[in-house]
Amino acid sequence: MRYLRNLARRPVRTLLTVLGITIGIWALVVFGSMANKINALVAGGSTYYADKITVSDASGQLGGFASAPMSLATADKLRAVDGVNVVDSAVMMLMDEAAPSVTMGVPPMITGSLPGGDQGLESFKLNYVEGRARTLADEGSNVAVLGSDIARKYDKHVGDTIELKGVPFTVIGVLEPTLTAPDQAVSVPLAAAQQLLVTTLPPMIQDKLVTSDIATSMVVYPDVGQDVEALATRIEADVPGISTMTGKDFDKQIGGATSILNSILVGIALISLLVGGLSVVNTMAMSIAERTREIGIKRAIGGSRTRIVRELVIEAGLIGFIGGAIGLILGAVVVTLVNEAGRSSGTVLFELTAGTALTAVAFSTILGALAGFVPALHAARLDPVRALRYE
Amino acid sequence: MNLLEGHALRKTYKLGKHNEVHALRGVDVAIGAGEMVAIMGPSGSGKSTLMHILGLLHAPDVDGGPRPSLTFDGRDMVDLGDRDRTRIRAREMGFVFQDFNLVPTLTAFENVMLACDYAGTSGADARGATHEALDIVGLADRAGHRPSELSGGEQQRVAIARALVNKPRMVLADEPTGNLDSERSVEVLGLLRRSNLEYGRTFILVTHDNEVGDACDRVIRMRDGLIREPTQAVPPVEPRMVDRRDLVAAGPG
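Predict the joint structure of the above. Result:
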Protein backbone atom coordinates (compact mmCIF):
# COMPACT_ATOMS: atom_id res chain seq x y z
CA MET A 1 0.00 0.00 0.00
CA ARG A 2 1.30 3.40 -1.06
CA TYR A 3 0.58 5.16 2.20
CA LEU A 4 2.44 2.52 4.18
CA ARG A 5 5.41 2.89 1.81
CA ASN A 6 5.48 6.60 2.55
CA LEU A 7 5.42 5.87 6.26
CA ALA A 8 8.23 3.36 5.81
CA ARG A 9 10.53 6.03 4.33
CA ARG A 10 11.59 7.12 7.80
CA PRO A 11 10.76 4.06 9.86
CA VAL A 12 12.22 5.33 13.13
CA ARG A 13 10.42 8.64 12.96
CA THR A 14 7.15 6.95 12.04
CA LEU A 15 7.62 4.46 14.86
CA LEU A 16 8.18 7.22 17.42
CA THR A 17 5.14 9.13 16.22
CA VAL A 18 3.00 6.02 16.28
CA LEU A 19 4.32 5.34 19.78
CA GLY A 20 3.18 8.80 20.91
CA ILE A 21 -0.37 8.03 19.78
CA THR A 22 -0.10 4.51 21.19
CA ILE A 23 0.67 5.81 24.66
CA GLY A 24 -2.21 8.26 24.51
CA ILE A 25 -4.70 5.66 23.36
CA TRP A 26 -3.33 3.14 25.83
CA ALA A 27 -3.98 5.62 28.62
CA LEU A 28 -7.43 6.37 27.24
CA VAL A 29 -8.33 2.67 27.07
CA VAL A 30 -7.01 1.83 30.55
CA PHE A 31 -8.38 4.92 32.29
CA GLY A 32 -11.56 4.76 30.26
CA SER A 33 -12.08 1.16 31.37
CA MET A 34 -11.51 2.22 34.96
CA ALA A 35 -14.06 5.00 34.54
CA ASN A 36 -16.49 2.51 32.98
CA LYS A 37 -16.19 0.27 36.01
CA ILE A 38 -16.73 3.18 38.38
CA ASN A 39 -19.70 4.34 36.36
CA ALA A 40 -21.23 0.86 36.42
CA LEU A 41 -20.82 0.77 40.20
CA VAL A 42 -22.39 4.19 40.58
CA ALA A 43 -25.17 3.45 38.13
CA GLY A 44 -25.90 0.25 40.04
CA GLY A 45 -26.03 2.17 43.30
CA SER A 46 -28.09 4.88 41.72
CA THR A 47 -30.62 2.34 40.46
CA TYR A 48 -30.64 0.54 43.80
CA TYR A 49 -31.22 3.65 45.89
CA ALA A 50 -33.76 5.22 43.55
CA ASP A 51 -37.37 5.40 44.71
CA LYS A 52 -36.61 4.27 48.24
CA ILE A 53 -35.17 5.60 51.46
CA THR A 54 -32.38 3.84 53.29
CA VAL A 55 -32.45 4.48 57.01
CA SER A 56 -29.48 3.95 59.28
CA ASP A 57 -28.38 4.95 62.77
CA ALA A 58 -27.45 8.63 62.87
CA SER A 59 -23.97 7.82 64.21
CA GLY A 60 -22.87 6.00 61.10
CA GLN A 61 -23.36 7.50 57.68
CA LEU A 62 -21.77 5.07 55.29
CA GLY A 63 -25.00 4.73 53.41
CA GLY A 64 -25.90 1.64 55.39
CA PHE A 65 -22.70 -0.25 54.60
CA ALA A 66 -21.59 -0.72 58.17
CA SER A 67 -23.33 1.44 60.65
CA ALA A 68 -24.17 1.01 64.32
CA PRO A 69 -27.04 -1.34 65.24
CA MET A 70 -30.60 -0.10 65.69
CA SER A 71 -33.51 -1.82 67.40
CA LEU A 72 -36.14 -3.47 65.21
CA ALA A 73 -38.60 -1.28 67.11
CA THR A 74 -37.35 1.55 64.93
CA ALA A 75 -39.01 -0.19 62.00
CA ASP A 76 -42.38 0.13 63.71
CA LYS A 77 -41.75 3.84 64.27
CA LEU A 78 -40.93 4.20 60.58
CA ARG A 79 -44.09 2.37 59.56
CA ALA A 80 -46.06 4.89 61.59
CA VAL A 81 -44.84 7.77 59.44
CA ASP A 82 -47.40 8.91 56.91
CA GLY A 83 -46.52 7.80 53.39
CA VAL A 84 -44.43 4.76 54.40
CA ASN A 85 -45.59 1.57 52.73
CA VAL A 86 -43.14 -1.20 53.69
CA VAL A 87 -40.03 -1.27 55.89
CA ASP A 88 -37.46 -3.99 55.26
CA SER A 89 -34.85 -4.42 58.02
CA ALA A 90 -31.40 -5.74 57.28
CA VAL A 91 -28.11 -6.41 59.01
CA MET A 92 -24.98 -5.46 57.10
CA MET A 93 -21.38 -5.80 58.15
CA LEU A 94 -17.96 -5.91 56.60
CA MET A 95 -17.05 -9.46 55.73
CA ASP A 96 -13.49 -8.93 56.82
CA GLU A 97 -12.73 -6.36 59.53
CA ALA A 98 -9.16 -6.14 58.28
CA ALA A 99 -10.33 -5.09 54.81
CA PRO A 100 -8.32 -2.18 53.46
CA SER A 101 -9.86 1.13 54.45
CA VAL A 102 -9.62 2.44 50.89
CA THR A 103 -10.96 0.22 48.13
CA MET A 104 -12.26 0.63 44.65
CA GLY A 105 -16.01 0.54 44.92
CA VAL A 106 -17.51 -1.55 47.67
CA PRO A 107 -15.77 -3.76 50.23
CA PRO A 108 -16.98 -7.36 50.68
CA MET A 109 -20.10 -7.35 52.87
CA ILE A 110 -22.28 -9.80 54.73
CA THR A 111 -25.95 -8.90 54.59
CA GLY A 112 -28.81 -10.52 56.42
CA SER A 113 -32.49 -9.96 55.77
CA LEU A 114 -35.81 -11.74 55.79
CA PRO A 115 -36.72 -13.07 52.33
CA GLY A 116 -39.78 -11.23 51.09
CA GLY A 117 -39.25 -8.42 53.59
CA ASP A 118 -39.64 -5.96 50.72
CA GLN A 119 -43.06 -7.47 49.92
CA GLY A 120 -42.13 -7.57 46.26
CA LEU A 121 -41.37 -3.85 46.06
CA GLU A 122 -37.64 -4.13 45.39
CA SER A 123 -37.03 -3.25 41.76
CA PHE A 124 -33.36 -4.25 41.72
CA LYS A 125 -33.64 -7.86 40.56
CA LEU A 126 -31.00 -10.49 41.14
CA ASN A 127 -30.40 -13.49 38.90
CA TYR A 128 -28.83 -16.77 39.89
CA VAL A 129 -26.03 -18.56 38.05
CA GLU A 130 -26.54 -21.64 40.20
CA GLY A 131 -28.64 -22.67 43.17
CA ARG A 132 -31.59 -20.76 44.50
CA ALA A 133 -32.63 -17.72 46.50
CA ARG A 134 -33.03 -17.86 50.26
CA THR A 135 -36.52 -18.49 51.62
CA LEU A 136 -38.10 -18.00 55.02
CA ALA A 137 -37.58 -21.72 55.60
CA ASP A 138 -33.83 -21.04 55.73
CA GLU A 139 -34.16 -18.86 58.85
CA GLY A 140 -32.38 -20.56 61.69
CA SER A 141 -29.93 -22.44 59.47
CA ASN A 142 -26.51 -21.25 58.30
CA VAL A 143 -26.91 -20.94 54.53
CA ALA A 144 -25.49 -18.30 52.21
CA VAL A 145 -26.02 -16.84 48.73
CA LEU A 146 -22.76 -15.56 47.22
CA GLY A 147 -22.18 -12.53 45.00
CA SER A 148 -20.30 -13.32 41.79
CA ASP A 149 -16.98 -11.77 42.86
CA ILE A 150 -17.05 -13.54 46.22
CA ALA A 151 -17.86 -16.88 44.61
CA ARG A 152 -14.97 -16.45 42.19
CA LYS A 153 -12.55 -15.21 44.85
CA TYR A 154 -13.11 -18.18 47.18
CA ASP A 155 -13.93 -20.61 44.35
CA LYS A 156 -17.18 -21.71 45.99
CA HIS A 157 -20.16 -23.41 44.40
CA VAL A 158 -23.55 -24.60 45.61
CA GLY A 159 -23.04 -27.25 48.29
CA ASP A 160 -19.62 -25.92 49.35
CA THR A 161 -19.02 -24.54 52.81
CA ILE A 162 -17.79 -20.97 53.32
CA GLU A 163 -16.55 -19.61 56.64
CA LEU A 164 -17.94 -16.24 57.64
CA LYS A 165 -16.24 -14.73 60.68
CA GLY A 166 -15.23 -18.25 61.72
CA VAL A 167 -18.73 -19.74 61.34
CA PRO A 168 -19.32 -22.31 58.55
CA PHE A 169 -22.18 -21.59 56.12
CA THR A 170 -23.50 -23.81 53.32
CA VAL A 171 -23.65 -22.17 49.88
CA ILE A 172 -27.14 -22.51 48.38
CA GLY A 173 -26.90 -20.01 45.53
CA VAL A 174 -24.52 -17.92 43.43
CA LEU A 175 -25.57 -14.64 41.79
CA GLU A 176 -24.91 -13.43 38.27
CA PRO A 177 -22.52 -10.47 38.05
CA THR A 178 -24.27 -7.11 38.49
CA LEU A 179 -21.09 -4.97 38.22
CA THR A 180 -22.17 -3.29 41.46
CA ALA A 181 -22.57 -3.92 45.21
CA PRO A 182 -24.23 -7.39 45.21
CA ASP A 183 -21.14 -8.86 43.46
CA GLN A 184 -19.21 -8.25 46.65
CA ALA A 185 -21.84 -9.47 49.11
CA VAL A 186 -22.78 -12.67 50.92
CA SER A 187 -26.44 -12.87 51.75
CA VAL A 188 -27.45 -14.91 54.81
CA PRO A 189 -30.63 -15.34 56.92
CA LEU A 190 -31.40 -12.38 59.19
CA ALA A 191 -30.95 -14.35 62.43
CA ALA A 192 -27.55 -15.63 61.31
CA ALA A 193 -26.43 -12.13 60.39
CA GLN A 194 -27.61 -10.76 63.74
CA GLN A 195 -25.59 -13.46 65.48
CA LEU A 196 -22.49 -12.72 63.40
CA LEU A 197 -22.79 -8.97 64.02
CA VAL A 198 -23.15 -9.30 67.77
CA THR A 199 -20.04 -11.49 68.08
CA THR A 200 -17.96 -8.81 66.40
CA LEU A 201 -19.08 -6.05 68.76
CA PRO A 202 -17.22 -5.12 71.94
CA PRO A 203 -18.59 -7.01 75.04
CA MET A 204 -19.85 -3.77 76.63
CA ILE A 205 -22.14 -3.11 73.69
CA GLN A 206 -23.05 -6.78 73.32
CA ASP A 207 -24.55 -6.78 76.84
CA LYS A 208 -26.96 -3.97 75.96
CA LEU A 209 -28.32 -5.67 72.84
CA VAL A 210 -30.87 -8.36 72.27
CA THR A 211 -29.44 -10.35 69.36
CA SER A 212 -32.78 -10.97 67.68
CA ASP A 213 -33.73 -7.27 67.86
CA ILE A 214 -30.97 -5.62 65.86
CA ALA A 215 -30.69 -4.24 62.34
CA THR A 216 -28.11 -1.90 60.78
CA SER A 217 -30.24 -0.52 58.02
CA MET A 218 -33.86 -0.32 57.08
CA VAL A 219 -35.15 0.19 53.59
CA VAL A 220 -38.31 2.26 53.41
CA TYR A 221 -40.53 1.74 50.37
CA PRO A 222 -42.87 4.73 50.06
CA ASP A 223 -46.55 4.58 49.17
CA VAL A 224 -47.29 4.95 45.49
CA GLY A 225 -47.17 8.60 44.43
CA GLN A 226 -45.20 9.74 47.49
CA ASP A 227 -42.45 12.31 46.98
CA VAL A 228 -39.38 10.44 48.18
CA GLU A 229 -37.43 13.53 49.25
CA ALA A 230 -40.33 14.97 51.24
CA LEU A 231 -40.92 11.62 52.92
CA ALA A 232 -37.24 11.38 53.89
CA THR A 233 -37.45 14.82 55.53
CA ARG A 234 -40.59 13.75 57.37
CA ILE A 235 -38.97 10.53 58.60
CA GLU A 236 -35.95 12.39 59.96
CA ALA A 237 -38.28 14.76 61.80
CA ASP A 238 -40.55 12.06 63.26
CA VAL A 239 -38.03 9.36 64.17
CA PRO A 240 -35.11 10.54 66.31
CA GLY A 241 -31.59 9.13 66.12
CA ILE A 242 -31.62 8.01 62.50
CA SER A 243 -30.43 9.39 59.21
CA THR A 244 -31.89 8.80 55.78
CA MET A 245 -30.41 8.42 52.36
CA THR A 246 -32.37 8.76 49.12
CA GLY A 247 -31.34 8.14 45.52
CA LYS A 248 -30.72 11.86 45.17
CA ASP A 249 -28.42 11.88 48.21
CA PHE A 250 -26.51 8.96 46.77
CA ASP A 251 -26.09 10.65 43.40
CA LYS A 252 -24.97 13.83 45.13
CA GLN A 253 -22.41 12.13 47.41
CA ILE A 254 -21.05 9.36 45.25
CA GLY A 255 -21.99 10.55 41.79
CA GLY A 256 -20.37 13.97 42.33
CA ALA A 257 -17.13 12.46 43.56
CA THR A 258 -16.93 9.87 40.81
CA SER A 259 -17.66 12.31 38.03
CA ILE A 260 -14.66 14.36 39.19
CA LEU A 261 -12.54 11.22 39.31
CA ASN A 262 -13.74 10.26 35.84
CA SER A 263 -12.88 13.70 34.49
CA ILE A 264 -9.40 13.45 35.96
CA LEU A 265 -8.81 9.99 34.49
CA VAL A 266 -10.08 10.87 31.03
CA GLY A 267 -8.35 14.27 31.23
CA ILE A 268 -4.96 12.67 31.80
CA ALA A 269 -5.53 10.37 28.83
CA LEU A 270 -6.62 13.26 26.61
CA ILE A 271 -3.57 15.32 27.51
CA SER A 272 -1.27 12.47 26.55
CA LEU A 273 -3.22 12.09 23.33
CA LEU A 274 -2.86 15.79 22.61
CA VAL A 275 0.91 15.43 22.93
CA GLY A 276 0.71 12.46 20.57
CA GLY A 277 -1.36 14.53 18.15
CA LEU A 278 1.19 17.35 18.18
CA SER A 279 3.92 14.87 17.35
CA VAL A 280 1.87 13.84 14.31
CA VAL A 281 1.75 17.50 13.24
CA ASN A 282 5.52 17.68 13.60
CA THR A 283 6.12 14.44 11.75
CA MET A 284 3.83 15.37 8.89
CA ALA A 285 5.37 18.85 8.62
CA MET A 286 8.86 17.34 8.40
CA SER A 287 7.83 14.59 6.07
CA ILE A 288 6.12 17.09 3.78
CA ALA A 289 9.15 19.39 3.80
CA GLU A 290 11.29 16.45 2.71
CA ARG A 291 8.83 15.66 -0.03
CA THR A 292 8.48 19.23 -1.32
CA ARG A 293 9.90 18.25 -4.69
CA GLU A 294 7.67 15.24 -5.03
CA ILE A 295 4.65 17.41 -4.28
CA GLY A 296 5.90 19.80 -6.97
CA ILE A 297 6.05 16.91 -9.47
CA LYS A 298 2.56 15.76 -8.60
CA ARG A 299 1.17 19.28 -8.94
CA ALA A 300 3.01 19.83 -12.24
CA ILE A 301 1.74 16.66 -13.90
CA GLY A 302 -1.82 17.48 -12.88
CA GLY A 303 -2.39 16.42 -9.27
CA SER A 304 -5.02 18.77 -7.87
CA ARG A 305 -4.68 20.51 -4.52
CA THR A 306 -7.52 18.38 -3.19
CA ARG A 307 -5.67 15.23 -4.20
CA ILE A 308 -2.47 16.34 -2.49
CA VAL A 309 -4.34 17.22 0.71
CA ARG A 310 -6.26 13.95 0.60
CA GLU A 311 -3.14 11.81 0.18
CA LEU A 312 -1.35 13.51 3.08
CA VAL A 313 -4.37 13.53 5.37
CA ILE A 314 -4.94 9.81 4.78
CA GLU A 315 -1.27 9.19 5.56
CA ALA A 316 -1.56 11.13 8.83
CA GLY A 317 -4.83 9.40 9.66
CA LEU A 318 -3.06 6.09 9.11
CA ILE A 319 -0.43 7.04 11.69
CA GLY A 320 -3.28 7.78 14.10
CA PHE A 321 -5.07 4.56 13.26
CA ILE A 322 -2.00 2.35 13.68
CA GLY A 323 -1.08 4.09 16.93
CA GLY A 324 -4.65 3.77 18.15
CA ALA A 325 -4.95 0.10 17.24
CA ILE A 326 -1.68 -0.79 18.98
CA GLY A 327 -2.69 1.32 21.99
CA LEU A 328 -6.03 -0.46 22.14
CA ILE A 329 -4.39 -3.89 22.00
CA LEU A 330 -1.85 -3.01 24.69
CA GLY A 331 -4.57 -1.40 26.80
CA ALA A 332 -6.81 -4.46 26.46
CA VAL A 333 -3.90 -6.69 27.47
CA VAL A 334 -3.22 -4.63 30.60
CA VAL A 335 -6.90 -4.41 31.52
CA THR A 336 -7.37 -8.16 31.10
CA LEU A 337 -4.20 -9.06 33.00
CA VAL A 338 -4.95 -6.73 35.92
CA ASN A 339 -8.55 -7.92 36.05
CA GLU A 340 -7.47 -11.57 36.07
CA ALA A 341 -4.95 -10.86 38.79
CA GLY A 342 -7.52 -8.85 40.76
CA ARG A 343 -10.25 -11.44 40.39
CA SER A 344 -8.57 -13.81 42.83
CA SER A 345 -8.74 -11.08 45.45
CA GLY A 346 -12.21 -10.01 44.34
CA THR A 347 -11.21 -6.59 43.01
CA VAL A 348 -12.12 -6.09 39.37
CA LEU A 349 -10.75 -2.69 38.46
CA PHE A 350 -11.62 -2.30 34.79
CA GLU A 351 -14.40 -2.76 32.37
CA LEU A 352 -13.39 -2.41 28.72
CA THR A 353 -16.50 -1.87 26.62
CA ALA A 354 -16.80 -2.08 22.85
CA GLY A 355 -17.79 1.58 22.92
CA THR A 356 -14.56 2.59 24.63
CA ALA A 357 -12.50 0.50 22.20
CA LEU A 358 -14.21 1.91 19.10
CA THR A 359 -14.09 5.47 20.39
CA ALA A 360 -10.39 5.16 21.14
CA VAL A 361 -9.45 3.99 17.64
CA ALA A 362 -11.84 6.33 15.84
CA PHE A 363 -10.59 9.21 17.95
CA SER A 364 -6.92 8.51 17.25
CA THR A 365 -7.59 8.19 13.52
CA ILE A 366 -9.47 11.47 13.39
CA LEU A 367 -6.84 13.12 15.57
CA GLY A 368 -4.09 11.96 13.19
CA ALA A 369 -5.99 13.16 10.14
CA LEU A 370 -6.67 16.54 11.75
CA ALA A 371 -3.02 16.86 12.74
CA GLY A 372 -2.03 16.21 9.12
CA PHE A 373 -4.51 18.66 7.69
CA VAL A 374 -2.68 21.95 8.22
CA PRO A 375 0.71 20.75 6.91
CA ALA A 376 -1.12 19.12 3.99
CA LEU A 377 -2.92 22.35 3.15
CA HIS A 378 0.41 24.15 3.23
CA ALA A 379 1.89 21.57 0.88
CA ALA A 380 -1.00 21.84 -1.57
CA ARG A 381 -0.52 25.61 -1.79
CA LEU A 382 3.13 25.37 -2.79
CA ASP A 383 4.07 26.86 -6.13
CA PRO A 384 4.78 23.75 -8.24
CA VAL A 385 7.73 25.36 -10.03
CA ARG A 386 9.41 26.44 -6.82
CA ALA A 387 8.66 23.05 -5.22
CA LEU A 388 10.28 21.31 -8.20
CA ARG A 389 13.48 23.30 -7.72
CA TYR A 390 13.56 22.61 -3.98
CA GLU A 391 16.69 20.74 -2.92
CA MET B 1 -3.33 26.19 -37.12
CA ASN B 2 -1.63 27.32 -33.96
CA LEU B 3 -2.14 25.15 -30.91
CA LEU B 4 -0.64 27.72 -28.60
CA GLU B 5 -0.49 31.49 -28.99
CA GLY B 6 0.89 34.01 -26.57
CA HIS B 7 1.14 37.78 -26.83
CA ALA B 8 2.80 40.33 -24.57
CA LEU B 9 3.83 37.64 -22.09
CA ARG B 10 5.60 39.20 -19.12
CA LYS B 11 6.78 37.76 -15.82
CA THR B 12 8.52 39.54 -12.99
CA TYR B 13 9.72 37.64 -9.96
CA LYS B 14 10.10 39.50 -6.69
CA LEU B 15 13.11 38.08 -4.86
CA GLY B 16 13.08 40.77 -2.19
CA LYS B 17 11.50 44.11 -1.50
CA HIS B 18 13.75 45.97 -3.93
CA ASN B 19 15.02 43.03 -5.92
CA GLU B 20 12.96 42.18 -8.96
CA VAL B 21 13.90 39.94 -11.82
CA HIS B 22 12.22 40.68 -15.13
CA ALA B 23 12.29 37.13 -16.46
CA LEU B 24 10.03 37.84 -19.43
CA ARG B 25 9.75 41.33 -20.84
CA GLY B 26 6.95 40.94 -23.38
CA VAL B 27 7.13 37.91 -25.61
CA ASP B 28 4.96 36.98 -28.58
CA VAL B 29 5.02 33.32 -29.44
CA ALA B 30 3.01 30.92 -31.59
CA ILE B 31 3.40 27.15 -31.66
CA GLY B 32 1.73 25.20 -34.44
CA ALA B 33 -0.10 21.93 -33.82
CA GLY B 34 2.30 19.04 -34.45
CA GLU B 35 5.38 21.23 -34.30
CA MET B 36 8.50 20.28 -32.39
CA VAL B 37 10.08 23.49 -31.11
CA ALA B 38 13.21 24.12 -29.07
CA ILE B 39 13.51 27.15 -26.81
CA MET B 40 17.20 27.98 -26.43
CA GLY B 41 19.21 30.67 -24.75
CA PRO B 42 21.75 31.28 -21.99
CA SER B 43 20.90 30.91 -18.30
CA GLY B 44 18.61 33.67 -17.13
CA SER B 45 17.34 34.38 -20.63
CA GLY B 46 13.77 33.56 -19.59
CA LYS B 47 13.41 30.28 -21.48
CA SER B 48 12.29 28.26 -18.44
CA THR B 49 9.88 31.03 -17.42
CA LEU B 50 8.38 30.96 -20.90
CA MET B 51 7.96 27.20 -20.66
CA HIS B 52 6.29 27.47 -17.26
CA ILE B 53 3.81 29.97 -18.66
CA LEU B 54 3.13 27.93 -21.80
CA GLY B 55 2.74 24.83 -19.58
CA LEU B 56 0.26 26.63 -17.29
CA LEU B 57 2.52 26.20 -14.26
CA HIS B 58 2.66 29.97 -13.89
CA ALA B 59 0.35 32.70 -15.10
CA PRO B 60 1.74 35.69 -17.03
CA ASP B 61 1.72 39.07 -15.26
CA VAL B 62 -1.47 40.94 -15.99
CA ASP B 63 -0.62 44.27 -14.30
CA GLY B 64 2.11 46.74 -15.21
CA GLY B 65 1.96 46.68 -18.99
CA PRO B 66 -0.15 45.78 -21.99
CA ARG B 67 -2.62 42.99 -21.27
CA PRO B 68 -1.15 39.60 -22.17
CA SER B 69 -3.04 36.91 -23.98
CA LEU B 70 -2.49 33.19 -24.03
CA THR B 71 -4.65 30.71 -25.88
CA PHE B 72 -4.31 26.93 -25.92
CA ASP B 73 -6.41 25.13 -28.50
CA GLY B 74 -8.37 28.36 -28.96
CA ARG B 75 -9.22 28.70 -25.24
CA ASP B 76 -8.11 31.64 -23.12
CA MET B 77 -5.64 30.61 -20.41
CA VAL B 78 -4.83 33.94 -18.74
CA ASP B 79 -7.85 34.15 -16.47
CA LEU B 80 -8.03 30.46 -15.65
CA GLY B 81 -8.03 29.46 -11.97
CA ASP B 82 -5.72 26.88 -10.42
CA ARG B 83 -8.30 24.10 -10.63
CA ASP B 84 -8.79 24.47 -14.39
CA ARG B 85 -5.07 24.88 -15.10
CA THR B 86 -4.38 21.71 -13.12
CA ARG B 87 -7.05 19.87 -15.07
CA ILE B 88 -5.65 20.93 -18.43
CA ARG B 89 -2.12 20.00 -17.33
CA ALA B 90 -3.39 16.58 -16.26
CA ARG B 91 -5.45 15.78 -19.35
CA GLU B 92 -3.96 17.67 -22.27
CA MET B 93 -0.29 18.20 -21.46
CA GLY B 94 2.69 16.07 -20.57
CA PHE B 95 5.80 17.15 -18.69
CA VAL B 96 9.38 15.89 -18.78
CA PHE B 97 12.02 17.39 -16.49
CA GLN B 98 15.79 17.47 -16.42
CA ASP B 99 16.04 15.53 -13.12
CA PHE B 100 13.52 12.88 -14.27
CA ASN B 101 11.39 13.73 -11.22
CA LEU B 102 9.77 10.41 -10.55
CA VAL B 103 8.05 9.68 -7.23
CA PRO B 104 10.69 7.62 -5.39
CA THR B 105 8.31 5.36 -3.45
CA LEU B 106 6.39 4.30 -6.55
CA THR B 107 7.43 1.70 -9.13
CA ALA B 108 7.89 2.70 -12.78
CA PHE B 109 4.42 1.34 -13.47
CA GLU B 110 2.83 3.25 -10.60
CA ASN B 111 4.62 6.45 -11.58
CA VAL B 112 3.14 6.27 -15.07
CA MET B 113 -0.28 5.25 -13.82
CA LEU B 114 -0.32 8.20 -11.41
CA ALA B 115 -0.68 10.48 -14.44
CA CYS B 116 -3.71 8.42 -15.60
CA ASP B 117 -5.15 8.73 -12.15
CA TYR B 118 -4.76 12.53 -12.21
CA ALA B 119 -6.34 12.65 -15.67
CA GLY B 120 -9.36 10.76 -14.38
CA THR B 121 -8.63 7.40 -16.02
CA SER B 122 -8.75 4.38 -13.76
CA GLY B 123 -9.03 0.62 -13.66
CA ALA B 124 -8.30 -1.51 -16.71
CA ASP B 125 -8.12 1.52 -19.03
CA ALA B 126 -5.38 3.08 -16.92
CA ARG B 127 -3.44 -0.17 -16.64
CA GLY B 128 -3.71 -0.76 -20.38
CA ALA B 129 -2.53 2.76 -21.20
CA THR B 130 0.33 2.41 -18.72
CA HIS B 131 1.50 -0.89 -20.23
CA GLU B 132 1.32 0.65 -23.66
CA ALA B 133 3.28 3.75 -22.65
CA LEU B 134 6.00 1.69 -20.97
CA ASP B 135 6.15 -0.52 -24.03
CA ILE B 136 6.67 2.49 -26.31
CA VAL B 137 9.68 3.62 -24.25
CA GLY B 138 11.00 0.05 -24.18
CA LEU B 139 10.67 -0.48 -20.42
CA ALA B 140 7.88 -3.04 -20.23
CA ASP B 141 10.23 -5.44 -18.43
CA ARG B 142 11.24 -2.82 -15.85
CA ALA B 143 7.70 -1.86 -14.82
CA GLY B 144 8.02 -3.21 -11.28
CA HIS B 145 11.24 -1.38 -10.45
CA ARG B 146 11.55 1.69 -8.27
CA PRO B 147 13.35 4.76 -9.66
CA SER B 148 16.39 4.01 -7.45
CA GLU B 149 16.76 0.68 -9.24
CA LEU B 150 16.80 2.29 -12.70
CA SER B 151 19.57 4.07 -14.59
CA GLY B 152 19.28 7.77 -15.48
CA GLY B 153 18.32 6.96 -19.05
CA GLU B 154 15.70 4.47 -17.89
CA GLN B 155 14.28 6.96 -15.39
CA GLN B 156 13.93 9.57 -18.10
CA ARG B 157 12.17 7.04 -20.34
CA VAL B 158 9.73 6.33 -17.49
CA ALA B 159 9.17 10.08 -17.22
CA ILE B 160 8.49 10.21 -20.97
CA ALA B 161 6.05 7.31 -20.65
CA ARG B 162 4.35 9.28 -17.88
CA ALA B 163 4.19 12.38 -20.11
CA LEU B 164 2.73 10.39 -23.02
CA VAL B 165 0.35 8.04 -21.22
CA ASN B 166 -2.69 10.32 -21.47
CA LYS B 167 -1.99 10.98 -25.19
CA PRO B 168 -1.66 14.73 -24.59
CA ARG B 169 -1.90 17.42 -27.30
CA MET B 170 1.36 18.91 -26.14
CA VAL B 171 4.46 17.80 -24.24
CA LEU B 172 6.77 20.27 -22.50
CA ALA B 173 10.27 19.12 -21.72
CA ASP B 174 12.71 21.12 -19.60
CA GLU B 175 16.29 20.08 -20.48
CA PRO B 176 15.19 16.49 -21.09
CA THR B 177 18.73 15.40 -22.02
CA GLY B 178 20.53 17.65 -19.52
CA ASN B 179 21.52 14.85 -17.16
CA LEU B 180 22.20 12.15 -19.76
CA ASP B 181 25.31 11.10 -21.69
CA SER B 182 25.22 11.57 -25.44
CA GLU B 183 24.13 8.02 -26.24
CA ARG B 184 21.15 8.21 -23.83
CA SER B 185 20.40 11.73 -25.11
CA VAL B 186 20.01 10.41 -28.66
CA GLU B 187 17.79 7.64 -27.34
CA VAL B 188 15.52 10.03 -25.43
CA LEU B 189 15.41 12.55 -28.25
CA GLY B 190 14.52 9.73 -30.66
CA LEU B 191 11.58 8.77 -28.48
CA LEU B 192 10.28 12.34 -28.39
CA ARG B 193 10.72 12.76 -32.14
CA ARG B 194 8.97 9.49 -32.90
CA SER B 195 6.00 10.45 -30.75
CA ASN B 196 5.93 13.81 -32.53
CA LEU B 197 6.02 12.29 -36.01
CA GLU B 198 3.79 9.27 -35.47
CA TYR B 199 1.06 10.93 -33.43
CA GLY B 200 1.40 14.57 -34.52
CA ARG B 201 1.97 15.56 -30.92
CA THR B 202 3.30 19.06 -30.25
CA PHE B 203 6.61 19.27 -28.37
CA ILE B 204 8.25 22.26 -26.70
CA LEU B 205 11.78 21.56 -25.52
CA VAL B 206 13.84 23.93 -23.38
CA THR B 207 17.48 23.13 -23.93
CA HIS B 208 21.11 24.26 -23.90
CA ASP B 209 22.05 21.50 -26.27
CA ASN B 210 22.53 22.57 -29.91
CA GLU B 211 22.06 18.98 -31.07
CA VAL B 212 18.62 18.96 -29.50
CA GLY B 213 17.90 22.27 -31.17
CA ASP B 214 19.04 20.90 -34.54
CA ALA B 215 16.71 17.93 -34.21
CA CYS B 216 13.68 20.20 -33.83
CA ASP B 217 11.57 21.83 -36.52
CA ARG B 218 12.39 25.27 -35.22
CA VAL B 219 14.41 27.04 -32.55
CA ILE B 220 13.18 30.00 -30.52
CA ARG B 221 16.28 31.82 -29.24
CA MET B 222 15.93 33.97 -26.15
CA ARG B 223 18.07 36.56 -24.41
CA ASP B 224 17.29 38.87 -21.49
CA GLY B 225 13.63 37.97 -21.37
CA LEU B 226 12.98 38.58 -25.05
CA ILE B 227 12.91 36.48 -28.20
CA ARG B 228 16.00 37.29 -30.24
CA GLU B 229 15.16 35.81 -33.60
CA PRO B 230 12.13 35.80 -35.82
CA THR B 231 10.05 32.76 -34.99
CA GLN B 232 8.38 31.84 -38.22
CA ALA B 233 8.09 28.12 -38.78
CA VAL B 234 10.67 26.60 -41.08
CA PRO B 235 8.97 24.40 -43.68
CA PRO B 236 10.33 20.87 -43.38
CA VAL B 237 12.70 19.95 -46.18
CA GLU B 238 13.72 16.56 -47.49
CA PRO B 239 17.17 16.22 -45.87
CA ARG B 240 15.72 16.93 -42.42
CA MET B 241 13.28 14.07 -42.85
CA VAL B 242 16.26 11.79 -43.36
CA ASP B 243 17.76 13.10 -40.11
CA ARG B 244 14.55 12.36 -38.31
CA ARG B 245 14.48 8.79 -39.47
CA ASP B 246 18.00 8.36 -38.22
CA LEU B 247 16.88 9.54 -34.82
CA VAL B 248 13.91 7.20 -34.80
CA ALA B 249 16.18 4.33 -35.76
CA ALA B 250 18.47 5.19 -32.85
CA GLY B 251 15.61 4.84 -30.41
CA PRO B 252 15.37 1.91 -28.00
CA GLY B 253 14.03 -1.43 -29.08
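Strands of chain B lie at 2-14, 20-32, 36-40, 69-72, 75-76, 93-96, 170-174, 202-207, 218-223, 226-227.
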